[in-house]
Amino acid sequence: MKSSKKRQVTAAFFAAAALGGVAHAAPVLNMNDLVGSKTTSESTTETINNVATPVVRPMDTQPMVPRVRPVPVPDTAKALEEQYRAVSQPQYVVNKQTNTMMEPTLAMHSLINVQRKTEPVTVQKQVDGKQQMQTTQVQRTPIIVQEQSTTPLVVANTTTTKSVIAKRTLTIRDIQRAERERLAKLAEEQAAQQEAMQQQSSEQAQAVRQMAAERAAEAQRQAALLVQQQEAQRQAELLAQQQEAQRQAVIKAEQDRIAAEQAEAQRQAAIKAEQDRIAAEQAEAQRQAAIRAEQDRIAAEQAEAQRQAAIRAEQERIAAQQAEAQRQAAIRAEQERIAAEQAEAQRQAAIRAEQERIAAQQAEAQRQAAIKAEQERIAAEQAEAQRQAAIKAEQERIAVEQAEADAEKARLEAAEAKAAAEAAAKAQAEAQRQAAIKAEQERIAAEQAKAEQEAKAKAEQEAKAKADAEAKARAEAKQAQEPKLPESYVNERNQASTKGSTTTGEKNILSQPIDPPLQADTSAKITLTFDINNYESMTGTVDDKEIKYRAFEYIPYVSNPIDIDQQYINIYIPEEYFNNGTVNGYNTQTAPIFMPNNVGGYMPSQPMAPKVENNKPNSALYALSRGYVVASPATRGRTNKASDGNFIGKAPAVIVDLQAATAYLHANDATMPGNAKRIITNGTSAGGAVSLLQGATGNTSDYQPYLQALGAATASTDVYASSAYAPITNLDAADMAYEWSYNGITSFNKVTMGQGELPQANVGGAPAPMQRSVQRVNLTNDDVAYSDLLKSHFPDYVNNLQLRDRTGVILKLDKKGNGTFKQYVKSFIIDAANKAKSNGTDLSRYSFLVLDKNTGMVKDIDWDAYNSFTSRSKVPGAFDSRSNDSGENSLFGTSTSDTNHFTITAALHDTTPNNDVYVENAKIVTMMNPMNYLGSPSATNAKYYRIRYGTADSNTSVAIPLILGTRAQNLGYSVDMATPFGVDHAGDYDLQDLFNWMDSIVKNGR
């Protein structure tokens, strides 16, 4: 037996059809009203704007003929034809903002017009203990009849539950059938009211007879509906918890009944085919529009790419022209100024090598010496004019590699001045000129060029001979071993590092000159000898065990500190080592030195003191319990200023301070407990980056001018091992890697931590709560285009590194960012997930994991889904911000400017209003990246590395720490590298594992 709810749905449609539908009204229909069920808590929760929602009460068991308002129609056949045409050609509305198509649901509109004053309601009641059916009349609330409207429908945003979606599931055939029945009943009512029109054509009479037959059929169907409704009510009372399933069954049964009527089904199929055709045409039109939009976007990208290519080509052309002009100018100048062209070439080579080797201070010394020689040579005539010209020429030659126009003009003027001096000067002036020439060219004279050059090199470079050899070896090694950026990227950076040229619109890309090492007052004469008697006895508790130790605090590690409040070290030593005792197998001679830094965000940092945090020991206290000597330094940071307002903590200050502290430990190895040959560094975030930098840059000469200016101890600066949590490192490649990971994510929550705040966690504990601000960010089209550009650079960078996995497979990426390197990164996340699963972690909420159906273990990850789950937390240009306002931009500022770009890509796309865009000197950027020193013969690399980067961390790309660890691994170093599953940006969360690894490399290593 068919359900009464089916019949009630049809009756509701008939009632709606009797009064006619409107062309556009709110598509809001409560299926409870159609099938006669009661509203449940699952019905719907909606917020609707701009649309009035009609209320339709359910029909009960009594068949009702809807009462309609008479509508005079002069021509029934014409009205039927127009109504049929409206059904055959439904109207669609296209939302221009979302490009989506909406279809008016006519049955829903028609229901608005149903009006009854009363209606029968059948209910079940217990009478004498038995269930009986009783029918009563109830009042209905009048419902406003809506006028027909041609205004496009405004659809409000709604929030619906699953049950509402199910209740709204009406087929197009239901809607069309209701409209057909409405038209039929309208014709019937019109025929009854206008008997005078019975003399119309035979076709009209036939239509009236057909409608009369349908009315009789409807009466029969209403009777059957009463019986079915009673049965449905009984079933609903017994199976209340399955109402949703019943409603679906009612709808399906009604569809089956309609399917049984073959003739009707054929007509409906024809109508549906027509609608499908119209929908297909509209979909095709939308697709064509989408294709045109995509073509426009591609054309714009191609145009931008062509523009960039043209810019690069123009830069290369200008560079080539300038190089050729400089070469020609150099040849002409050498021919006019000196007798031996080869000697001058050697001098130029020596000057360039000297400039590359000795940074800013030596460059300044050479510039002053050259200016002095030039002043002596032209002192006889036109002294002031010639001196200014020579200074200008010399400055342009050293700062911008002899820029074409200015260098040639300056040297021509110098040559003319020289000729005039030779013709007009007296004997004394000539002698002075010859003396000046001899002083300037004493190393390159034609007869004595080689002998004088060797003598001068021996006199001036005796103390720097070792550094010269190391610099030369380093330069040769870098050609073969240093990580490479894309060729265009490198060319742009090199050009901007040596000259200022208009490369982006009207802006000039200029390289910042290197600040000379900061000089401090040397009158203090601070001793760098460790005082074994200057301590304070302290205690702590680890696992209910008391830890006694001596605290040696506030020890300056340089004799000429720039900031005494930031350049000191705290040393903590277990008490047992002063009583000939041992801890964990270590004694006063063999105990390793644990060197944690507290650097966060490249801000100023203070030493880490042993203490309990969040009911857990921090790494310093835990290290003492394991028998380690703890040496934790304070360091300068990017916001430090001197009393005159100048910055004193910009790069490379933080690594210079850490190197000075390391030299202090080596210099006092014989007088203090602990083994300075077993120093192990540790840090988190930016602190993790500088910990790895310590491991890679031991004993390099690049920091020597800075260490000497500070009065650091003359001792080794290498360490034994480095540990890093969530390292924000390899900054000049980090922007590319970040967009390789998060390209395509255009809406995200930007999380900003407190200034310099460092996320930390303790052994076995969760990260401590942090003060964060969250801002919802939507990327602009310009941001998306910049993201695409950065992502396109990353494959070239990875491929040039020639990294290999443990089996020897070369790790590469294709132009789309796929390849063996991507699979290599995914393998770390898969291993971490399986380890977490083995430890009992519930992985059900991680939809990006692909499980093996047989074993239940993770066999793969959906890369895009993983990155969407983690989500970006920074806009494209995550580190070198185009607006020049990131923490890393601040790191690369100078003593007088707070921020600088440090990549050419960001400078070329700078969004600040400044016409002059400055890029930090390439030498400084190099000194802050450990990738530039791993494998270099000019540096003593640590042999052991431990790197942890959580899978939930989006502060940099997971690729960045894995690239550095893999590079060290390929060089033959021992690397313990992992991506703990579900861990965000934090550190020191597995201290027991960390110190087990440290014990292993110390006790089993060499």
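Second entry:
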Amino acid sequence: MLPMRGRPFPFLRRLPALLSCLLLMALPAFAEQRPVVADGMPGYQHTAWRVGQGAPGDIWDIAQDQQGMLWLATGSGLYRFDGRRFERQAAPSGSAFPSTNMVTLALDADDSLWIGYFQAGISQLSASHLRSFGRAEGVPIGVVPHFSRDREGRLWAAINGGLRWFDGRRWRAPEAHSGVPERRVQWLLHDRHGTFWVLADLKIWRRPPGATAFEDTGIAVSQMASLAESPRGEIWLADRNRGTSPLADARGLLAANEREARRLPDLVAARLQFTADGALWATMSPHGGVARVTFDGDRATRMERFDTPQGLTATSAVPILLDREGNLWVGTNLGLNRFRARSVQTLAAGPTDPYRSLVRASDGRVYGYGEDLQPYDLRRPLLAGSATQLKDAARHASAPLWQFDWINLVQTVGGHTTRIPSPAPFTGQPLQALLFPNDDEAWVCVGERGVLRYARAQWHRQARLPEQACSTMAMAGDGALLLGYADGRLRRMDARGVATFGAADGLAVGPVTALLQDQDMLLVAGEAGLAARIGKRPFSEVRTDMAGVLEGITGMVADAHGRLWLNGSRGLVRLDRTALRDAVLRHQPVAPRLFDAVDGMPGIALQSGPIPTAVLAADGLLWLATNQGLAWLDTSAAHVNSRPPGVRIGDVLYGATQAPLVDGLRLPAGTTQLQIDYVALSLARPERNRYRYRLSGVDEGWQDAGSSTRAYYTNLAPGHYRFEVEAANEDGIWSSTPALRSFRIDPTFLQTVWFKLLCAALVLAALAMAVRIRSGQLAALFRARLQERHGERERIARDLHDTLLQGSQGLILHLHAISQSAQTPDGVRTQLESAMQLAERNLAEGRERVNALRDGPFAGRDLATALADVHAEYAGQGTNPLRLTVEGTPPVLQADAVEEVFLIGREAIRNALRHAHASAIEVELSYGSRCFLLHVRDDGVGIADDEAGHGHWGLQGMRERAQRLGAELQLWTRPGLGTEVALAVPARRLYHRRPPRWRWPWNRKHDD
């Protein structure tokens, strides 16, 4: 073949250029990523707790338990943090931590805490027990950088002296054939796919699922490297020499060129933490604070740095933790830091004028502008752009745009701006309120009296409205115009006329600042608060437990998710539509959610201006005009902390003693006042947590404590108590179950049951003594009266004996003398003798009566004998036979009572003999243990029913005597069938009481 002559082959001539192009194309595949770096994290609110404010220093690790408490491993011991207070955790009684230099933490499902020390082994801390493990328990000497648990629940520890796992009693090394080196083990990780990763001897080792041995990946690492897993399931490596890079994904190790292409050499990190949005957080090593990296796919787009100039407690940070509420916690050597995503974002590239306005065009786009009237397009995709880009986009807007310059309307159409002055006589007067229903129509309240409508390039005055300028305007759903006024009134104008509402209709919010018609609910905001009207009902004040939160509302909108947003003087307020309706109808307070500076709100709502300060765009962004600039909130996101907070009951203070309130605690006798501490373990906004509590036996229902974390009780009695407390987080989500503790207050001796029984016994004894003393007094009084009665009877008997009887005896003797006289005729003598016999009988009866007065009715006889003598006296011998029956042994009877019984019996016998003409009489005496019975029966003529008890003074006397005795008297009688009288006397009223076998010291022996 002949050699070619002339020009070489074209391909060879172009080969250098082609190789250069290929090299340039390949370079990005092997080049690391260097995203744009910015200082500060505008999307996050930072809160710091510094060493001088009670926080510990040298924080090496952070863990969160099941309740939500944070645990901090520090160089000075173990601390816990509930969002408000740091408490140093002491070892349980009788034990001690091997060292205070703690570097690693891990929590079990039962909240027992594993602690790794710098050079002192490992400990396990439970509620009441501390177990420590050293060389004797299989833990080699060295730092314990990390713990990890595998799928089987086995706990592994990375220790500089080797890899170990815990078998329940001691720490064991892997099998000899496992292949992992026994030195310089600095990190370990069990990923979601079951792969076990270990950093040992400055290399990366892995054990795939199901394998028994580790394999060397051949990838070298630096000292103090660490691993983390992303939400996508990728394993990332933080290396102090090469920065941060992905290591593997679900398919296994990434190719070296891919690892290199995605490497972040500027992110030299000590620890890594991914968030749910895919962003990577890192603590920089050894200095540099905190970094956050965002990605677009596999490409890192932005790195935000946060260090001491931005407020970090110290530039040297190590641990980073994402808690269950989405907060990120960073520990430094000078305190603790929290990063919380802001719900409200400030527009950085927007108008810079002091007064910034918002307007919504008919196509749903929202524009912002300042006093220069330069509009900014605020669509969601443009927000990351510059101010120039936002203004350029606004200039190409297709829909007309309404604006104002305080005295003129301004309309921009197709990039052309036109000022529209107010008509005379309102030209040049300030605009008080504006409303733009559509592209061709505008409503204006101007000056002090003008309400104008601009349509089709013409101004129209509204004659139906009074000449009074309004302070705000809105359009109702049915097309009616709503106008609020500075005097607190509201007018509604539609085709039917104008309706006015004021204080008489329940509207009392002060000067009206904003209006919103949401379905059938009308909201009226004023300087003094908020009022709502549902349907045709009167207005009702909207109340809340957060003072002032509904004042100064100058913008209100309703989103597509049933939430109402109110921009006011305290910040942005969110209300649930359904909850608000229920609260208004029931006249109860509503629970708002306030978004303030901690949530990213830049200042408060503008308080002066003719247009609303809250505007909702078609893309779901809520735009807010504040005194510090324009801000936005994405209404398509929930912005709700839906996790119910746990509650921790802390110490109880009684007297000068403070102790943990544990179940079954016994408080000393005499305790009457308590202070109980509690706290919600919600770390997002602990200052916004709300509480309610109750103490059984004291509180009838839940006591609303607001944000107070202490309960006070006074005047507590001894007994068993149960204290319950619930908490709600910043979004009003209450605890699923209350935290509770039971305790007991011991009684003093004066409060014991025995003392009460003793007091009752003493009272009963005192009552018994009082009754006895009173009974003695009554008995003495009765005896005195009885003696007085006996004395009176003896006096009467003496008087009768000395006067009547002696006189009668003298008269008989005189008559006897007359009868014996010779001059007395025989007929007269006979009459005199008959009269003397009658007189002698009367005298004998008188003497008997006198003797009865002296000796009583018995004169030494018993009751049966006395009644028999009565029968003998009145019946005579042999006639009207008496049958007397006695049952029981007659006891000693009370003289006064037996006399009454005798008189009743005597009267019954005398009635039977004198009035009933009885031929036979029966008398029965029955001495029972509880009752004495007297029966008197006869076979006489009886008594008619209509006469029984009427007109018979003897029967009436018998009843009166029975009543005085407390006895029961019964009478049975029928004409021709005889009569029966029955008397029942309680034994205690008739029988003489037996003297007691023993006497109280104060008893006195009485002579009866």
